[in-house]
């Protein structure tokens, strides 16, 4: 198990209370106008996102169907078959590289496609939490003062002392509670932005940087992987350092970390710790296990595996970790395409709903001073934005499918009318009530 040394004895807390004027009606109206512009841009962007997503999804699905109908599996990966030149091939095999990847500064050497050095620094980190409350006039016989409303027990005690709670005033009380603590972080934390920088200063740079080394040539049998396929080998695993020695008198190994520290158990701000991970083990290793096996679907160009261009204008260059049949690879890709499509549809609907909410926010601001009307208007605007966003999203999806699958487009277009029909049928019912 890797050691993870840290100290919580440096934790320091500070509290800051500020009182700010609450924006008046004209200020909030001005902010709402700016929000309307942002809402309009978000609303228009949602159409682009949804429409282009449908085109991308259909193009990908068509390309995958074409690839499945054309892919061939060579008899052997240890020879290049001339009859498969230019064709989409299905290759399964163990990865092999031409040389070891290494970091001589720490004595790390291993056969892999990628070797990553991860560096962290022990630094000050400031965490904040804040809460705000509306201030009311608290009136006693002979005196009055501003009180934040929210602590029911305290207010009840004050009422026993003769407190009368007045109207809210146009100001807010903000209470910021901050903690300065020390943590291992892989990025530089800028202490100049701290509320309390004195005594919590971090170094401005790391003496050792993180990096990732990549093998220049990677093979499966006789076939060389293109750069795009090498980029897809990203199944990083932590490298055990248990059999390595301390590389330098100033560097101490503890567990799976190299520490640039006098005492790793009690690190100081500015100390470093270094860990390693690797992806795509090349060749069998007595400590790390067998070579990593991958499944590749790509175009054969001589002894290279490169992208394949489909008739729909898309490219196929697939790599999956493990041993899979061609059918299983394409099934997994279709599932991934479907999940991505639905995720972007949801994002487009949310962008449209947010845009409509911001554009209609001005109506809520106009009745903000009347609590009963404010709540009713708020519910009505949310319902309007929900129905419109749902209908317009379905119509945009239908437009994206119109030239590819017109019957499905017609069906989705009819679904887009459902929220509007439901809303209209509920109006007469409410009038009868």
UniProtKB/TrEMBL annotation:
What do the Gene Ontology cellular component annotations say?
Answer: endoplasmic reticulum lumen; endoplasmic reticulum membrane; Golgi apparatus; nuclear inner membrane
TM annotation in the entry? 33-51, 342-363, 383-403, 408-427
Q: Region Disordered: which residues?
A: 1-26
Q: Which UniProt keywords apply?
A: Endoplasmic reticulum, Membrane, Nucleus, Transmembrane, Transmembrane helix
- Which cellular compartments is it found in? Endomembrane system; Endoplasmic reticulum membrane; Nucleus envelope
GO biological process entries: lipid metabolic process; memory; nuclear membrane organization; positive regulation of cell communication by electrical coupling; potassium ion transport
- Topology of this chain in the membrane: Multi-pass membrane protein
Write out the GO MF terms. Answer: identical protein binding
The text of the family note is: Belongs to the TMEM43 family.
| Protein name, UniProt field | Transmembrane protein 43
Q: Which species is the source of this protein?
A: Equus asinus (Donkey)
Tell me the organism's taxonomic lineage. Eukaryota, Metazoa, Chordata, Craniata, Vertebrata
